[in-house]
Amino acid sequence: MTVLALGPSWLDPDYLIPTFGLIGILVIVFAESGLLIGFFLPGDSLLFTAGLLVATDQYLHYPLWLVCTLVVISAVLGDQAGYLFGRKVGPALFRRPDSRLFKQENVQKAHEFFEKHGPKSLVLARFVPIVRTFTPIIAGVSEMRYRSFLIFNVIGGALWGAGVTLLGAVLGQFAFVRDHIDAILVGIVLVSVAPIAVEYLRSRRKKAREQDGAAPADGETSAPAQPGQPGPAAPGSDAPGNSPDNGGQRGRHARR
Length: 256
Fold this sequence. Notes:
By secondary structure, this protein is mainly alpha-helical.
């Protein structure tokens, strides 16, 4: 099987699976699910290819149910590690400087995703690269109730881990898929990245609307206050000359 490399050759599923086998798949799934350094790993394409190879009995000579079960366990444990890391690190994560393997922008995206979708973000984020790595960490930082986290963690891990693997196994039985696996993997990556692109464009439009709404309408610009002329009094504040302090000062001057 020849797969089109979507990045460095050592991230190519066609290299990773024959080289590291099932253990390598489980380690990568664990790392991408909740370790800061795992955001760049090829989770979707790796699981799809694993399912295809199991179905065609290449490299992975294990029952499909066993592979799916182990993948789900690795995904759940990875999110668990991310949650505990977030609980321990807390707000310090948002003050961590950018580095080669860490970008503050990724944390902010995951935080916005979590704030928007709440606990169900743990399920939705499974299908969004990069976001799925940081979302369990953000859940820990936000001190999400552990019971709720565990429930959504298991649901998301099962839907993603077993779902993508089974999809590869089912579609891998068709000769067309086997012959065009490179295009299929490119399509998986594009579909995975699509939610990020949509969210980015939506955010851009929202910011543009907010800026347009904040701009003053034509003819409504306020003129700057002239020297010696008091500006409008703030709501709830006493008008100049009517405050008790001013009155008290006039009384003291009068007594003098």
